């Protein structure tokens, strides 16, 4: 399978595997690499079928699978979790609500995130620079992960660009068109008035406080620069449409 590899900041990368076979549309499935303090952290791990592409992509930045120290899943769907068994030395984490989605014996490799008292913040042991928030929708245990070092906000499939072409062929881009389209999409969902949208807008509100510079989704383009304003704009598009 073809893949794209792009840097976010020093020690932070996105790998996007092009998949024209699994679904009825061609899509990019993303995973992310963070390197710091002797740790190599993966956010999501793709399908098992992606492993040859992932091995090749990692090797270009000097990483072998056995060097990966942590795998964190944004959610438990197979296209984000299945490839995790490649990383034999890694400690692996998933939200407890999504742990049942993992197939046997893969589930046995994972530690479940521990919710704190407010039911929205979660902790992954030994990864103090990462803040993990439950986002309410897509799956029971879907989380967003904010990295205070790279300022990247990893949202998984809570909001993504599945099946969409990369604007201008760029994997990481500001993309004003994408921002406007995302706000219009949220406004349209608000007008439909589904119960699920109420959960979505609450999850989105939890992401506004982060001073993010990268909006890292589970599929497709990664948006860069002034992401806090973008997230707030989506939230306003949804809440204002609800009130009309």
Report the β-strand fraction as a percent range: 25-35%
CATH architecture: 4-Layer Sandwich
Instruction: Tell me the CATH superfamily.
Output: Ribonuclease Z/Hydroxyacylglutathione hydrolase-like
Could you state the oligomeric state of the chains shown?
Answer: single chain
Radius of gyration: 17 Å
SS element count, helices: 5
**Which CATH C-level class is it?**
Alpha Beta
Query: Strand order across the biggest sheet?
Result: 1-2-3-4-5-6-7-8-9-10-11-13-14-12
Measured distance between first and last alpha carbons: 46 Å
Shape: globular
In total, the number of domains comes to 1
As a percent range, the share of helical residues equals 10-25%
3D architecture notes:
It is a single chain. The chain is an alpha/beta fold and 244 residues long. The chain has one domain: Metallo-beta-lactamase, Chain A (4-Layer Sandwich), CATH 3.60.15.10. The chain has helices at residues 51-60, 78-81, 176-192, 195-205, 227-243; strands spanning 3-9, 12-19, 27-36, 39-43, 70-72, 91-95, 110-115, 121-123, 130-134, 143-147, 152-156, 172-173, 214-217, 222-224. Strands 1-2-3-4-5-6-7-8-9-10-11-13-14-12 form a 14-stranded mixed beta sheet, with helices on one face. Strand 2 and strand 3 (27-36) form a beta hairpin. It is globular and about 50 Å long. The model has no long low-confidence stretch (mean pLDDT 94). Residues 28-219 form the Metallo-beta-lactamase domain. This is Metallo-beta-lactamase superfamily protein. It holds the Pfam family Lactamase_B. It comes from Sporomusa malonica.
């Amino acid at each position: 399978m073809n893949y794209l590899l792009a840097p976010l900041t020093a020690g932070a990368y996105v790998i996007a595997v092009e998949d024209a076979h699994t679904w009825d549309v061609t899509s990019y499935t993303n995973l992310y690499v963070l390197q710091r303090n002797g740790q190599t952290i993966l956010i999501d791990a793709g399908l098992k079928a992606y492993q040859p592409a992932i091995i090749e992509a990692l090797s270009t930045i000097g990483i072998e699978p056995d060097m990966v120290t942590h795998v964190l899943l944004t959610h438990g769907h197979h296209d984000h979790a299945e490839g995790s068994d490649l990383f034999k030395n890694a400690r692996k984490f998933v939200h407890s609500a999504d742990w049942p989605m993992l197939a046997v014996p893969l589930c046995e490799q994972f530690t479940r995130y521990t919710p704190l008292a407010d039911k929205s913040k979660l902790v992954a042991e030994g990864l103090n620079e990462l803040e993990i928030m439950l986002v309410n929708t897509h799956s029971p245990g879907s989380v967003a992960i904010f990295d205070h070092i790279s300022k990247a906000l990893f949202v998984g499939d809570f909001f993504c660009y599945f099946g969409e072409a990369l604007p201008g062929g760029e994997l990481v881009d500001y993309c004003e068109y994408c921002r406007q389209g995302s706000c219009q999409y949220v406004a349209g969902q608000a007008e439909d008035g589904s119960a699920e949208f109420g959960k979505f807008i609450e999850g989105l509100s939890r992401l506004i406080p982060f001073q993010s510079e990268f909006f890292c989704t589970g599929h497709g383009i990664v948006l860069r620069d002034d992401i806090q304003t973008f997230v707030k704009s989506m939230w306003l598009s949804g809440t204002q449409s609800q009130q009309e």
